């Protein structure tokens, strides 16, 4: 049995949901409430206090890219991993890059435009306690505070996101597509989807639509896949819940 502890809007959870959909696997959807990921029962499954966590026949597997690779190994149908060692090394280099650059970068505008607004209502004491309770994100939350990250952090994040669009544009031009690594749809494609979806939702699609033709075409192909439609159900995007707030913060 496959169980996934996840948040609908979590980009890391979305990567895993795409792989589950690509493979047509049945799984139990544990959509946990905000705060539940910091409770002792959940920390036993995932000591990092983040989503997602996959539980396969009672055994927990953590970290979204690791979970994606695990699923591809255990359920080899519709493989999203290159068949040769060199291809796998190239794919893993993409996964590391995606984890180091665009995945963290997109968190900065996500928190400033949307998530920080839920934290503004808390007392300073309650906020500090909530930040300190996060095994992986304590310092991130303290730097953000209750008013959001400083502009220099947002500028750095936007620079990183632009770099990513440039890297993907070059890769698609070099491999000839239709996917990042060429003919095969791989985890490099899967792991980038939630970042682009969040950027589009936040109103930053112009970053690739202006001057990145290959990325624009790749994004259209991604959105046409049924795994994309399954993953992004109603409630999986910020704009489904926070549309009015996002319009305000876009104008600010
Ligand atoms: N490296 C981890 C990171 C997971 C992660 O950061 N998850 C976010 C949601 S996308 C989370 O659970 N955040 C909880 C929090 O901010 O308290 C992975 O890829 O699974």
What does it look like?
With 252 residues, the chain is of the alpha+beta class. It folds into two domains: 2-74, Glutaredoxin; 85-251, Glutathione S-transferase Yfyf (Class Pi), Chain A, domain 2. It contains 13 helices and four strands. It has helices spanning 11-22, 40-45, 64-74, 85-100, 102-119, 124-132, 138-144, 151-175, 187-202, 206-209, 213-224, 226-231, 238-251, and strands spanning 2-6, 28-31, 53-56, 59-62. Helix 1 (11-22) links the parallel strand 1 and strand 2 (28-31). It is globular. The relative contact order is 0.14. It binds glutathione. Glutathione binds at residues 10-12, 37, 50-52, 63-64, 134, 137.
What brief labels describe this structure?
four-stranded mixed sheet, Glutaredoxin, 7% strand, Glutathione S-transferase Yfyf (Class Pi), Chain A, domain 2, 252 residues, binds glutathione, single chain, alpha+beta, globular, 2 domains
For the residues shown, what is the average pLDDT? 97
CATH class category name of the largest domain: Mainly Alpha
Main sheet strand line-up: 2-1-3-4
CATH architecture of the largest domain: Up-down Bundle
Structural class: alpha+beta
The tally of beta strands, per DSSP, is 4
User: What number of structural domains do the residues give?
Assistant: 2
Shape: globular
Give the bound compounds. glutathione
Largest sheet: 4 strands, mixed
Tally the helices. 13
Multimeric status of the protein: single chain
As a percent range, the share of helical residues equals 55-70%
Our measurement of the CA-to-CA distance between the termini, rounded to an integer number of angstroms, reads 47 Å
CATH topology annotation of the largest domain:
Glutathione S-transferase Yfyf (Class Pi), Chain A, domain 2
Topology order in helix (H) and strand (E) letters: EHEHEEHHHHHHHHHHH
Low-pLDDT sequence parts: none
> Rg from C-alpha positions?
18 Å
Strand content: 5-15%
């Amino acid at each position: 049995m496959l169980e996934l502890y996840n948040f609908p809007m979590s980009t890391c959870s979305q990567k895993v949901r795409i792989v589950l959909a690509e493979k047509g696997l049945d799984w139990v959807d544990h959509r946990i409430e905000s705060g539940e990921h910091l409770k002792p029962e959940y920390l036993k499954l995932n000591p990092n206090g983040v989503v997602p966590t996959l539980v396969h026949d009672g055994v927990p597997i953590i970290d979204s890219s690791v979970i994606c690779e695990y699923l591809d190994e255990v359920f080899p149908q519709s493989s999203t991993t290159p068949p040769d060692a060199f291809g796998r090394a190239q794919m893993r280099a993409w996964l590391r890059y995606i984890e180091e650059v665009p995945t963290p970068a997109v968190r900065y505008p996500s928190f400033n435009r949307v998530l920080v607004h839920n934290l503004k209502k808390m007392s300073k004491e309650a906020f500090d306690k909530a930040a300190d309770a996060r095994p992986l994100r304590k310092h991130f939350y303290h730097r953000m505070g209750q008013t959001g990250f400083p502009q220099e952090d947002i500028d750095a994040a936007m620079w990183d996101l632009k770099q990513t669009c440039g890297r993907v544009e070059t890769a698609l031009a070099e491999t000839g597509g239709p996917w990042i690594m060429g003919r095969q749809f791989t985890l490099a494609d899967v792991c980038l989807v939630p970042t682009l979806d969040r950027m589009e939702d936040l109103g930053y699609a112009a970053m690739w639509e202006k001057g990145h033709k290959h990325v624009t075409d790749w994004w259209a192909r991604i959105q046409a896949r049924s795994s994309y439609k399954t993953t992004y159900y109603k409630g999986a995007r910020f704009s489904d819940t926070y549309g009015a707030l996002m319009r305000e913060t876009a104008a600010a």
